[in-house]
Amino acid sequence: MSGIATAPATPTPKEIASQAAVGRDIRALRKSRGLTLAELALKVGRSIGWMSQAERGLSALSINDLRLIARALDAPISWFFAHEGVPEAERGYVVRAGSRRRIGSIEGGLTEELLSPDLGGAFEVVHSVFEPGAELAEPVVRPTEEAGYIVEGRFELEVGGRHFTLGAGDSFRVKGEPHRWRNPGPGRTVIVWVIAPPVY
After folding, report:
1. What is the mean pLDDT of residues 141-152?
2. Please, what sign has the CA dihedral across residues 79, 83, 84, 86?
3. Whole-angstrom Cα distance, residue 145 to residue 197?
């Protein structure tokens, strides 16, 4: 060994673009969770400066870094790899059918995919699939305005004490009111859901 230190390899344009995309995802997720940069840094166990550099795409994050950030943001680590294989010209503009990011939980018979390119806009568009019997039993109130379009199936919706039974082709809006839902079956229900501001 010569003992001569070698300079770190200069990142390629592809690596720089990937770092920037991951940074944008971290920032968007953090904001959707209502966390400040300082709060996220504390959860991850890093400095505010380090966290800021990560969000600006100036740091090459390790798998362990991404795992810690994902846990702090209650998101799957796979969220940060959704850009792999996506042409640079399409990032932020187009989401191909086979490249949607899965969001939320599949517990309770609900699976969701993000139709929006990212969470950086004023709203998000979500493809939601409710299995027969899936329900949100207790009313929730979110600081959002939400609208949905029933693509297929039946959907029971209660908003502010009003009960609605909806079918394919129907649509609805919920604005900061207590609401709950249920798929009465017998088949699955598919809804395209628009939420502002993004919550995932």
Report:
1. 94
2. positive
3. 7
Q: Which domains does the chain possess? A: 13-81 (1.10.260.40), 97-196 (2.60.120.10)
User: Which of 118, 106, 142, 131 has the alpha carbon at shortest distance from 191?
Assistant: 131
Cα(88)–Cα(200) distance, integer angstroms: 23
Closest Cα to residue 23, out of 122, 126, 119?
119
Please state the pTM of the whole predicted model. Answer: 0.71
Predicted pLDDT of residue 163: 97
In this structure, how many other beta carbons lie within 10 angstroms of the beta carbon of residue 22?
24
Beta bridge partners of 190: 129, 152
53-85 per-position pLDDT tens digit: 999 888 878 888 888 998 898 877 777 776 667
Give the residue-averaged pLDDT of 99-123: 79
